């Protein structure tokens, strides 16, 4: 128990990027769940958010775990995976929640991520247009590859290569990723389908990670860098979560 408490105290706290009476925009640290998953008892972004904005309790849509437990998802409009860091917007009231959900649904929100991937991406720009279903090999994974099961949902990701090079005789690429749709694990599944999984991805890059130097990164190399969206007050705003220092250092390692 002492170790668990020490881990909680040592966790990096979310950083507030913007706040008004309707929304809160933060940098979500790597390692935090956005909302409870029905399994873990750890503090979530929602817990932290309600400590700051208790009026948001009950805002949003109900969600349930695979076991049928109702999950507290107060204020959640979109998600980032536990190991992904970056910009996240939360709604303080139901009207704001509905407005923001519609922005994402209508694809009016611009999202830009930064990621390192294993191997060389030779095209400077491109679009990955592959529908996503469920993996037949692992129930935790989504799949954009042939043989995916269940309903296949449209999924589109634009990309731009920022850099490419070798570190300790192993090739890597540094990319901007601009998802046009918002499927679960979309970026991770799309890059896996190209056999260019994201560095440090134990779920989608398990065939790479144990044989690689992983650019000396100890985390999933995926960061939500920019979110541009129209707020409930009608203003179009652009929020930037700074690229983590370890990403800057990794970029220097592969600089040609």
pLDDT below 50 for ≥5 consecutive residues: which ranges? 1-10
Helix content: 10-25%
What is the arithmetic mean of pLDDT? Answer: 91
Main beta sheet strand tally, sense and closure: 9 strands, mixed
Number of strands: 14
CATH fold label of the largest domain? Pseudouridine synthase
| CATH secondary-structure class of the largest domain | Alpha Beta
Task: Please compute the radius of gyration using only Cα atoms.
Answer: 18 Å
Task: State the end-to-end distance.
Answer: 47 Å
Strand content: 25-35%
Order of helices and strands: HEEHEEEHEEEEEEEHHEEH
Corresponding CATH architecture of the largest domain: 2-Layer Sandwich
Overall number of domains: 2
Oligomer: single chain
CATH superfamily of the largest domain: Pseudouridine synthase
Number of helices: 6
Based on helices, strands and strand pairing, what is the structural class? alpha+beta
Question: Can you describe this structure?
Answer:
With 256 residues, the protein is of the alpha+beta class. Helix content is 20%, strand content 32%. It folds into two domains: 1-106, Pseudouridine synthase (2-Layer Sandwich), CATH 3.30.2350; 108-256, Pseudouridine synthase (2-Layer Sandwich). It is built from six helices and 14 strands. The strands form three sheets. Strands 1, 2, 5, 6, 7, 11, 12, 13 and 14 form a nine-stranded mixed sheet that branches. A three-stranded antiparallel sheet has the order 9-8-10, covered by helices on one side. A two-stranded antiparallel ribbon has the order 3-4. It is globular.
């Amino acid at each position: 128990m002492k170790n668990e408490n020490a881990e909680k105290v040592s966790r990096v706290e979310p950083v507030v990027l913007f706040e008004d009476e309707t929304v809160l925009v933060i940098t979500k640290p790597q390692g935090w769940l956005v909302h409870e998953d029905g399994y873990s008892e750890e503090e979530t972004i929602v817990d932290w958010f309600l400590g700051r904005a208790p009026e948001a309790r009950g805002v949003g849509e109900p969600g349930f775990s695979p076991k049928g437990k109702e999950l507290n998802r107060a204020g959640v409009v979109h998600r980032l995976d536990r190991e992904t860091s970056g910009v996240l917007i939360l709604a303080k009231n139901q009207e704001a929640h509905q407005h923001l959900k519609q922005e994402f649904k209508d694809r009016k929100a611009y999202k830009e991520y930064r990621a390192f991937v294993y191997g060389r991406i030779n095209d400077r720009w491109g679009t990955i247009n592959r529908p996503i279903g469920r993996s037949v090999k692992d129930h935790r994974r989504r799949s954009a590859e042939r043989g995916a099961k269940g309903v296949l949902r449209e999924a589109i990701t634009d990309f731009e290569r920022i850099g490419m090079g070798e570190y300790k005789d192993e090739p890597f690429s540094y990319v901007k990723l601009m998802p046009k749709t918002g499927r679960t694990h979309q970026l991770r599944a799309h890059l896996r389908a190209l056999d260019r999984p994201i560095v440090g991805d134990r779920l989608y890059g398990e065939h790479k990670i144990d044989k690689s130097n992983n650019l000396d990164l100890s985390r999933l190399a995926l960061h939500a860098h920019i979110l541009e969206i129209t707020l409930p007050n009608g203003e179009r705003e652009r929020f930037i979560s700074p690229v983590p220092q370890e990403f800057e250092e990794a970029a220097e390692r592969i600089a040609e």
